[in-house]
Amino acid sequence: MEIEEKYTDMNNPFMAQAREVARLSNDRQQPTGAVIVANGKILASASNKNPLSSEKLISLHQKFCIRHALGVKSGTMYWMCPGCAKKEDHAESRAAKMLISEGLPDIPVDVYLWGHWWCCDVCWKNMRKLPLGNVYLLDDSKRLFNIDNPDNILGKQFQV
After folding, report:
1. How many CB atoms lie within 10 A of CB 23?
2. Please, which pLDDT band fits residue 64 given cuts at 50, 70 and 90?
3. Taking 90 as the threshold, does the pLDDT of residue 104 lie above it?
């Protein structure tokens, strides 16, 4: 069964929670939060994680990323840049792994993703290990969180 991304607004309490989870990310460029829900209850949540730990390196990466400089498509070729989160550090993958380790429910789960405008192939693969129902992105996320869109809110995500 093909699952498509759906959209919801910030009035949705699970999308609002995904935004709060994104605040825990150490990735200043694209903080992302994922919340996994079943029967109105949050079962797992995680933010994305930047592999850099030095404040100076994180700041440098925010200003210059080799993937962005070369125009590499988002969701691909993370190995090119030491400051880009590895696929296992993405919010969706981390939340899915957390839920799998705690035990999967027998009912479909929904994933709410705040801070990004799509799910990369690796994240889809990891989420498909769950009894996946729906994947929700924030309304207008293709504009808000896409670095290639001149009207994005990157760098101001938590001010809006």
Report:
1. 13
2. confident
3. yes
- How far is Cα 30 from Cα 74, in angstroms, rounded to an integer? 11
Question: Which helix (DSSP H) or strand (DSSP E) does residue 33 occupy?
Answer: strand 33-38
DSSP letters of 99-150? HHHH---SS-EEEEEES-SS--HHHHHHHTTS-EEEEEEETTHHHHS-TTST
What is the model's pTM?
Answer: 0.83
> Is pLDDT larger for residue 81 or for residue 99?
99
How many CB atoms are located within 10 Å of the residue 114 CB? 29
Looking up tokens 């192939």 gives 121
Dist. CA 78–CA 71, nearest whole Å: 12
Q: Supply the pLDDT for residue 85.
A: 60
- Identify the H or E element spanning 16: helix 13-22
16 token code pair:
């609002």
Q: List, in sequence order, every residue forming a beta bridge with 5; answer none if it has no partner.
A: 135
Dihedrals φ, ψ of 72, to 5°?
A: -70, 135
- Judged against a pLDDT cut of 60, whether residue 1 lies above it is answered with no
